[in-house]
Design a protein that fits this description.
With 306 residues, this protein is α/β, with parallel strands linked by helices. Helices cover 39% and strands 20% of the residues. It contains ten helices and twelve strands. The strands form two sheets. The chain has a six-stranded parallel beta sheet, sandwiched between helices. Strands 7-6-8-9-10-12 form a six-stranded mixed beta sheet, sandwiched between helices. It is elongated, with a radius of gyration of 20 Å. Bound molecules: beta-D-fucofuranose. Beta-D-fucofuranose (GYE) binds next to helix 1 and strand 9. The site of beta-D-fucofuranose (GYE) has 11 residues, from helix 1 and strand 9.
Length: 306
């Protein structure tokens, strides 16, 4: 027998679609804004939308995909919490003939491939986001030595892996900067605050805090202030996302920069799905372009932030 190359399941062109969006957790404004974007798009794109909340558990997210397959969804928009544990879910959907689009996070490329196991990844370039934060920091940090602490996102998630790589590689080009600690805060404000409190005991002299998302950056600012430090004056805080609280922190002078990572995937999901149903070949990565928010433009963007 000859092994057949797996081909992507087709998507019928029709008036309404049954769509699954298994959200991974809802403990931060980014996730809430993303879910809302899908719910709002259900109206305009004629979706019967099923959403679930895995509460921060990859195992629960896998089970949620299972139940959506059982309910007969036409198409799946999956934000995989971590790169490896969701691969069986992606393969199961493909085997059930359901076209899957990964949204906002990706899976391990060695184990599942766009154009084969799923149609495409819709999302940002996380390596580039980390690189842009590092380059802004190199340009804007005043001083000849910097002790850097990094708060990583969810262990095993694509944005945590890539935002670390992009930042680490770029910051290494300037010998003033030394990363003395890099620990996960699970993309959560509370965890970011707790981890920063602990790290401050070993590194009270920290000059730069790089957080992989704004929620952890806000948590770090709280911990720094509690320890008598002055974010924006004696310590530079930099991060990624572009939430309302982060833009406000920039306006207040407590944060230096946040590189955008947009949660508003609903319209892009609708458009890409329709292109696929029309028989267009979809690029393996539908890349989202990100802005950058600093003192220069935070005030004019804060009202539109989430
Ligand atoms: O930066 C973070 C969220 O996967 C791009 O996940 C997303 C990230 C986002 O929890 O705030």
């Amino acid at each position: 027998t000859v092994a057949m190359a797996q081909s992507l399941p087709p998507l019928e062109q029709k008036e309404r679609y049954k769509v699954g969006f298994p959200q991974m957790e809802s403990n931060n404004p980014w996730r809430i804004a993303e879910t809302k974007s899908f719910v709002d798009t259900a109206e305009t794109c004629n979706w019967d939308l099923i959403t679930t909340d895995a509460g921060g558990s990859a195992a629960k997210q896998v089970a949620d995909v299972d139940s959506m397959i059982a309910q007969g969804i036409d198409v799946l928009f999956l934000p995989p919490r971590e790169e490896k544990p969701l691969i069986p879910a992606v393969k199961k959907a493909a085997a059930a003939g359901i076209p899957t689009f990964l949204v906002d996070r990706s899976v391990d490329p060695n184990n599942a491939k766009a154009g084969v196991d799923y149609v495409s990844f819709l999302g940002s370039d996380f390596i580039d986001q980390g690189r842009r934060v590092a380059e802004w920091t190199i340009e804007n940090f005043e001083g000849d030595k910097a002790v850097v602490v990094q708060l990583e996102g969810t262990t095993g998630s694509s944005p945590a892996n890539d935002r670390k790589k992009g930042f680490d590689d770029a910051i290494a080009k300037d010998s003033r900067f030394t990363i003395v600690a890099s620990q996960t805060g699970d993309f959560a404000r509370d965890k970011g605050r707790q981890v920063m409190e602990t790290l401050l005991q070993a590194h009270p002299d920290v000059d730069v805090v790089y957080a992989h998302n704004d929620e952890m950056a806000i948590g770090a600012i709280q911990a720094l202030e509690l320890a008598g430090r002055k974010p924006g004056e004696d310590v530079l805080v930099v991060s990624i996302d572009g939430t309302r609280d982060a833009l406000q922190a920039i306006i207040d002078g407590k944060m230096g920069v946040t590189v955008e990572s947009s949660p508003f995937f609903g319209p892009l999901a609708c458009e890409t799905m329709k292109r696929y149903a029309a028989g267009e070949e979809i690029e393996p990565w539908v890349q989202v372009k990100d802005r950058i928010f600093t003192q220069e433009n935070a005030a004019e963007n804060v009202d539109d932030a989430y």
